[in-house]
TrEMBL record:
This is Uncharacterized protein. The lineage of its organism: Eukaryota, Viridiplantae, Streptophyta, Embryophyta, Tracheophyta. It comes from Cichorium intybus. It comes from the Eukaryota.
Length: 260
């Protein structure tokens, strides 16, 4: 009898540990995402293209910090290369510049000869192309990054995400030719859980183009990321991001390092 109850106690204890560890929040992953996509529509072979690419990207890296987190540059008279970078407006200029600095080698390494490529490192986007970039909505690639786990209140979360997104879409698209960004927060469920979100378009897009781009992010959030703790929907022209934590400059730093 004694033995049996000890056994069942141990069994219960183990079951309890399993339940507790299943619900233990996962360690916060470093926010450093390293995503890149090379467009498979053509490769370059000339050093002229390569040199133009290097100049366009360096001009972007050099100027983005002083230009509010958005900069476009073109280089070359023949085989012109256009480059662009966009930092979320919640990054300050120092972190924006360092994010772009980090992105360029990654892009060059991973798209070694493609005429067009894009990367998202931490929170910034860097892209280059042989075609016109400015004012063009060119959603040739979408990247969806769901963040685990699934929350307990899926329906409430999805509704809150959708409501917040609609509000931010209008605000972001209604921005200026220098900035089309909106961020906000809300709560959901009985427990009033905090939720944060941000949306942004490259500001060279028109209001209509930005609305359209952000609308695509809102459509896909349901299919890719329903109930997820957080998610990012990234395109070369816009993004939508939500999470249960606020977004800030910490994004581009290793978590353990303190800022001095
Ligand atoms: C471009 O080069 C890559 C290898 O770097 C190759 O996989 C790809 O098929 C090439 N694309 C075209 C359109 O030739
Ligand atoms: C970015 O790179 C440039 C050129 O290498 C350098 O001068 C600048 O200090 C870097 N900026 C940051 C914030 O790392
Ligand atoms: C949450 O939103 C309110 C307004 O809706 C704003 O005043 C507040 O600063 C926001 N808080 C954070 C942490 O973003």
């Amino acid at each position: 009898m004694e033995m049996k109850s000890t056994m069942s106690f141990l069994f219960l204890l183990q079951a309890l540990i399993n339940v507790v560890s299943a619900f233990k929040p996962p360690p916060i992953p470093p926010e450093d995402i390293n995503v890149y996509r090379c467009r498979n529509t053509g490769n370059y072979t000339s050093t002229n293209y390569k040199n133009n690419l290097i100049s366009a990207l360096s001009a972007v890296a050099k100027n983005i910090g002083a230009h509010g987190g958005f900069y476009q540059s073109s280089a070359g008279t023949t085989e012109q290369v256009n480059a662009v970078a966009l930092c979320p407006s919640y990054l300050n200029s120092f972190f924006c510049e360092s994010c772009v600095n980090k992105s360029i080698p990654l892009l060059q390494k991973n798209c070694p000869n493609q005429k067009e490529g894009v990367t998202w490192v931490a929170s910034c986007m860097v892209r280059y192309s042989d075609r016109k970039i400015s004012g063009v909505l060119d959603d040739w690639v979408w990247v969806h990054l769901p963040k685990d786990p699934i929350v307990a209140k899926v329906r409430e979360l999805d509704q809150a995400v959708s409501d917040l997104a609609s509000r931010l879409q209008t605000q972001a698209a209604g921005g200026t030719s220098l900035k089309k960004f909106a961020s906000g927060n809300t709560t959901y469920g009985m427990e009033k859980v905090d939720l944060y979100a941000a949306m942004q378009c490259t500001p060279d897009l028109s209001k209509e183009q930005c609305t359209k781009c952000l609308f695509s992010t809102m459509l896909t959030v349901h299919s890719c990321c329903s109930g997820k703790l957080g998610a990012r929907m990234l395109s070369p022209n816009c993004y939508f991001r939500y999470d249960h934590d606020q977004f800030d400059n910490i994004d581009v730093l290793p978590r353990a390092t303190s800022i001095r």
